[in-house]
């Protein structure tokens, strides 16, 4: 069943209650509809356990706080909504989204005050940003002609529901026959990709940008996994030249994990296929997800 077709079997959370997807309603006057005025976070579950749930909930609250949106539940309440959605939908491997909209105000005139925030959440079978064939072979990417909105205009650490900048860059790449866009910041340095953080590997050291990015949970996980293998990560500025001449380039995201990039702007990266460091980190990442060590069990009573 496609998403959005209104399945009566899928339970979602909206307006303080769990409802079948085909009964879920939000107001046309909600600021998320009118202005993209909302925050969200995406988590994933593997084998009946939600990976780094606390980190995702913390980031959601930080995004909301930065925008002065009050989350209708406390952190424990939000975590429980996620776990309950997993249980109600009988999911083991899942893609989870939690949104907090600014809600409906007194008039639809862009005033951010006196609105009633709305928590929306769903959990559906696990989804990846790219299909598995592309993931196995490596993505073909191109540097976008646009620039990522700088943090001086909208702090990139806020995971907000206005993704037009990313969507336009992805469209540009897809329409040029590429899998994904690489986003530069206003200064011409690599920032991220639509929905992913960017890494390069060069002579057994990892490099990743630190500015004008969403601080990804997977990015941090990769830094930790690399450190456990004795590999340093340098956080700093990267240019297109650095990508073209890297031994390996890869992208990280909750939606799918680690994705090798085999080509950037027609330049082959390394040997033009997923390299040994990317493969090793991907394997360690999957092992970590499966181990459940950094995850919250959904079905504790069954001992899963
Ligand atoms: C703009 C952007 N950058 C990076 C990421 C990767 O972050 P995470 O690893 O927490 O999924 C995302 C995830 O949705 C994103 O939207």
Describe the overall structure.
The chain has 304 residues and is an alpha+beta fold. It folds into 2 domains: 11-125, Aminotransferase class 4, branched-chain amino acid transferase, N-terminal domain (D-amino Acid Aminotransferase, Chain A, domain 1), CATH 3.30.470.10; 132-290, Alpha-Beta Barrel (D-amino Acid Aminotransferase, Chain A, domain 2). The protein has helices spanning 31-35, 53-66, 75-88, 132-137, 164-175, 217-228, 240-244, 276-291; strands at residues 11-14, 17-20, 38-46, 49-51, 94-104, 116-125, 139-147, 180-184, 190-192, 197-202, 205-208, 233-235, 248-253, 257-264, 267-268, 295-297. The strands form 2 sheets. Strands 7, 8, 9, 10, 11, 12, 13, 14 and 15 form a 9-stranded mixed β-sheet that branches. A 7-stranded antiparallel β-sheet has the order 2-1-6-5-3-4-16. Strand 1 (11-14) and strand 2 form a beta hairpin. The radius of gyration is 20 Å and the shape is globular. The chain starts with 10 loop residues before the first strand and ends in a 7-residue tail after the last strand. The structure holds pyridoxal-5'-phosphate (PLP). Residues 42, 166, 192, 195-197, 214, 216-219, 252-254 line the site of pyridoxal-5'-phosphate.
CATH architecture of the largest domain: Alpha-Beta Barrel
Low-confidence runs of at least 5 consecutive residues: none
CATH class of the largest domain: Alpha Beta
Oligomer: single chain
- CATH H-level superfamily of the largest domain: D-amino Acid Aminotransferase, subunit A, domain 2
- What series of H and E elements makes up the topology? EEHEEHHEEHEHEEEEHEHEEEHE
Q: Separation of termini?
A: 27 Å
Task: Report Rg.
Answer: 20 Å
Which sheet architecture does the biggest sheet show?
Answer: 9 strands, mixed
Taken together, the total number of domains comes to: 2
Binned strand content: 25-35%
The chain-level mean pLDDT equals: 95
The number of helices is: 8
Count of distinct strands: 16
Which cofactors or ions or other ligands sit in this model? pyridoxal-5'-phosphate
The coarse silhouette is globular
- Tell me roughly what share of residues is in helical segments: 25-40%
User: Which structural category fits the helices and strands?
Assistant: alpha+beta
CATH topology label of the largest domain? D-amino Acid Aminotransferase, Chain A, domain 2
């Amino acid at each position: 069943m496609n998403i959005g077709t209104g399945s009566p079997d899928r339970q979602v959370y909206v307006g303080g209650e769990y409802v079948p997807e085909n009964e879920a309603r939000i107001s046309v006057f909600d600021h998320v509809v009118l202005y993209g005025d909302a925050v969200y976070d995406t988590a994933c579950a593997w084998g009946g356990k939600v990976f780094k749930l606390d980190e995702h909930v913390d980031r959601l609250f930080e995004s909301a706080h930065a925008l002065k949106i009050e989350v209708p539940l406390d952190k424990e309440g939000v975590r429980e909504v996620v776990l309950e959605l997993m249980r109600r939908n009988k999911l083991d491997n899942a893609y989870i989204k939690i949104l907090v909209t600014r809600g409906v105000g007194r008039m639809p005139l862009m005033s951010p005050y006196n609105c009633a925030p709305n928590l929306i959440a769903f959990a559906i079978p696990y989804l990846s940003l790219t299909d598995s064939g592309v993931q196995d072979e490596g993505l073909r990417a191109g540097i976008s002609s646009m620039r990522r909105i700088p943090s001086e205009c909208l702090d990139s650490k806020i995971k907000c529901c206005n993704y037009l900048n990313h969507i336009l860059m992805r469209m540009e790449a897809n329409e040029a026959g590429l899998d994904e866009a690489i986003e530069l910041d206003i200064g011409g340095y690599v920032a991220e990709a639509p929905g992913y953080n960017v890494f390069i590997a060069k002579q057994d050291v990892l490099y990743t940008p630190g500015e004008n990015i969403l601080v990804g949970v997977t990015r941090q996980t990769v830094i930790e996994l690399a450190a456990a293998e004795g590999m340093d990560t340098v956080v700093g500025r990267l240019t297109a030249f650095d990508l073209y001449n890297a031994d390996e380039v890869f992208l990280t995201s909750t939606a799918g994990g680690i994705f090798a990039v085999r080509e950037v702007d027609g330049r082959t990266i390394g040997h033009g296929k997923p390299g040994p460091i990317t493969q090793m980190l991907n394997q360690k990442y999957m092992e970590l997800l499966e181990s459940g060590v950094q995850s919250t069990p959904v079905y504790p009573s069954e001992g899963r």
